[in-house]
Amino acid sequence: MAKVLIIGAGGVGNVVAHKCAMVSEVFEEITLASRTVSKCEEIAAAVKQRTGKEIATAQVDADNVPELVALIQKVQPDMVINVALPYQDLPIMDACLETKVHYLDTANYEPKDEAKFEYSWQWAYQEKFKEAGITAILGCGFDPGVTGVFTARAAKHFFDEMHYLDIVDCNAGDHGKAFATNFNPEINIREITQKGKYYENGEWVEIDAMSKHKAISYPNIGPRESYLLYHEELESLVKNYPTLKRARFWMTFGQAYLTHLEVMQNIGMTSIKPVKYQGMDIVPLEFLKAVLPEPSSLGENYTGETSIGCQIKGIKDGQEQTYYIWNNCSHQAAFDEVGGQGVAYTTGVPAMLGAKMFLEGKWDNGAGVFNVEEFNPDPFLAELGKYGLEWHEEVGGTLPHSYE
Ligand code: NDP
């Protein structure tokens, strides 16, 4: 029986709150805190209606360490689940250190003024977390998150050496809006407008954003144009699996999305550099976020599904081995269950399950800072389907796309 403090009441926070409430044999007491307390209250009311479970709410500015410390001291959680924005990772980790409370998040720290997507800042907390005797679980959403657990399963059960890894991420859903992002628009647009990058033969190869793409065929969906992006889990995966010769990440985008994005980039709306407007400093991307639909509002008429998986090639018992492991998630089913869309669902379920694994002692690497692939994948994957994300695998098949 444990107490958790969830920070962030957006699309993902809504799913985590619902899922923890549905597993009340583990998450006995739940507090949901965020900058705008009315959003926490709305979620708490929805959770009560769907599950019958009461959850507490609180207001917090998670950029402010003393405020966080005061809240943690009041709530006394066993673990903080951080599903606010990447900017808040370090203040929340600092507050966890001060109060000696375990930590989990779904996205790596980002400084506000540069798009970096790297783990260096959080990995630098390793010694401090060890000394404090607490654990940080980094990147426990879907990607990063389940993609790391999938890779860990491949390494543990199907390969002596993994050589080629392609993470393939398709959203074949339709929310009916001209342009909207499926998770926080600021982070999403920062991620896809930065240079593309992949790992090959010990080096990172940089390419122009969206310049490499091809049709990849996804289970139950078919071929979709997929673009090579840099995604943060590549950094930890190539570190933890040094036999990898190449690691890439592909994501689908529709033409209408790309056209909107191009126009917004061309007119400067995606910039993270402040501009002066009527005497004030305004960050164009922050303003753009304010006029775009909230990701948490997209669920109601969202049709179609996501498909995210790992395609791996390497060696087992001296023979070439191929392996594909994936999950497909229906936006509509997610909405029916927790009132959110599939991208929030595929992030929130693993965050709940990672916390559950840790609190039950099934993920026990001792104190320190860990990426998800460093934990035992078996107990997590044994329960992932039960909590809504059924997965499938094909061993030794013909990989559908990418080994040109
Ligand atoms: P949203 O923008 O919908 O929600 C973010 C929430 O964080 C909002 O409730 C917001 O409050 C709150 N917040 C922002 N700043 C602060 C602050 N200073 N103090 C307290 N609360 C704050 O984002 P999502 O739910 O879509 O995403 C949540 C996280 O999940 C992000 O870090 C995102 O990168 C990550 N993610 C990870 C994925 C994965 O697979 N690993 C996939 C998708 C998302 P307010 O309402 O006041 O703005």
TrEMBL record:
Domain Saccharopine dehydrogenase-like C-terminal: 141-389
A family per Pfam: Sacchrp_dh_NADP
UniProt cross-references to InterPro entries, sorted A to Z: NAD(P)-bd_dom_sf, Sacchrp_dh-like_C, Sacchrp_dh_NADP-bd
Saccharopine dehydrogenase NADP binding domain mapped to chain residues: 4-137
Alphabetized SUPFAM superfamilies for the sequence: NAD(P)-binding Rossmann-fold domains (SSF51735)
Protein's UniProt name: Saccharopine dehydrogenase family protein
